[in-house]
Specification:
The chain has 84 residues and is of the alpha+beta class. 37% of the residues lie in helices and 19% in strands. A 4-stranded mixed sheet has the order 1-4-3-2.
Length: 84
């Protein structure tokens, strides 16, 4: 079972120094080790650190990119917020 994160957990990891986490379609990815390899540059990843980057991701990538990098970068999923 993969680790579950709250959106607050992800938001706390919003810099390379803290561990750069992003959300894509409710999956959480650790990007700090990938920042320098990112073909679009480090700046764009740093801008979406700690946030849901689904919209930005799908604008520039297709599913093959996710399949290629998920095994290396995916660290868990976003935990559903309790419904009151």
């Amino acid at each position: 079972m993969s680790k579950q994160f709250t959106t607050a957990d992800v938001a706390a990891h919003n810099t390379v120094e803290k561990g750069l986490h992003i959300i894509i379609d409710n999956d959480v990815y650790e990007m700090s080790g990938f920042v320098d390899e990112h073909p679009g540059g480090a700046k764009i990843l740093k801008r979406v650190g700690g946030k849901d980057a689904s919209k930005q991701f799908w604008k520039y990538h297709n599913e093959s990119v996710l399949k290629k990098y998920s095994p290396k970068l995916k660290i868990g999923t976003v935990k559903e917020a309790a419904k009151l």
